Amino acid sequence: MKFPGFLQNSGKILLAAALFLALISCASSKAVHLIDLTTKESPAETEIILTTSDPVQYQETKLENPPCLIISFPEEKIISNKGEELEINKGPIKRIKNEYYLEKRRGQKLLNLMVVELKQDVSYTISNNGNLITLKIESPLSEPALPSPQNSNQNEQQTSDKPLHLEPGYIIGPEDILSVEVWKHPDISREVVVNSKGEITIPPFKNLSVIGLTTSQLEEKLAKALSRYILDPIVFVTVKQYNSQRVIALGEVKTGMYTLKRKTTLVEFLGQVGDMTPNANIYNIKLIKKDGTVFTLDLNKLLADSEKREKILVSAGDTVYVPPLDMNKVLVLGEVTYPKSLILKGKMTVADAIAEAGGYTRDAVLKSVIVIRGEPGSQKGIRVSLKRMLKEADVSQNIELEPGDIVYVPKTFIADVERFLRDLAFPLTWYFWYLR
Questions:
Q1: CA–CA distance from 344 to each of 75, 105, 259, 326, 428 (Å)?
Q2: What CATH number is given to the structural domain containing 269?
Q3: Which of 28, 247, 308, 363 has the highest count of CB atoms within 10 angstroms of its CB?
């Protein structure tokens, strides 16, 4: 009877099939290790390079608001020990967020997707070469240098690489309008208004406090709260309108307190305020930051430089002061045809001031012109030789004037400048302020 042999053969077939299925299962569940995540920066682009133990398949998704790239691994098991949030701040890249899930059987930390947050919307390319995934992101245009705060002893315009912009850690306040995006959950994503108590309403939360939080902190708070209802929520928060931002305008404009609805340049703010008086000194507008730092800016130069114009912004707590022209005077006295006070509009040199006063007389001693500068009691005298400037083309003698300067063209050579200041500076200064 051959029945037992048949059973024996059937058992071998079943065993072979089980082994085959086990091999397939093992092959399909093979985990890939994320070995390294590095960034490289060059003037043209910034690269993010993922190195894995074996080639992996990925999907890419681009979001415009806020600008970011999402690289997901829906069919791969990638074991990773990288941090959940990496501050990059290279080129256009702000930071990288790694979203994980926990495999219950082995308790391994598996990478679900990687979120690359960008500072602005730029072009990119992504490629897969074996066990390398390379993301190349074009660098934005470089920012121009901006003026540094004015020095208490001098008003010269200098350059600084410190940009004037809204603080990156913007604190959310009442009446701000926020855009909340929950990835793959359009039913929750929406625009919300922060009420007077500093709360927002977003499903499933009726009143969620957001006062005093930055957008990054609110993203973390929402993701933690939504994780009770959604698996691994990814949240993006941006400020659509900065209604809690107040800026004060003073001087030769329509004074008052104004609300910024969005990121606003100084030029745009002045245009919105409007109503500058004819006496407005647009050459020396003061932007006083909330920390007390003062920037002196020339509106004409900003209008002529589109790149710099877009970089100089006003933010909450700032004060914009447009001084009057009649506070921006210089006085020309001595051996000139028409001694007078002059309104300082933009750049004016000693030679310009003397020319405005009708030129010098026949008795003028051009090699001993004195520029009196400073407040009474702390004045200094600067000797200028216009003779060297005219005969030897020494332009270093033709110094640029500052508000409050007194240009004195003597009749005789002034040998002792200190004695001259002691004897004549006070009467000249009194005369100067009397004319104003």
A1: 71, 79, 32, 9, 18
A2: 3.10.560.10
A3: 247
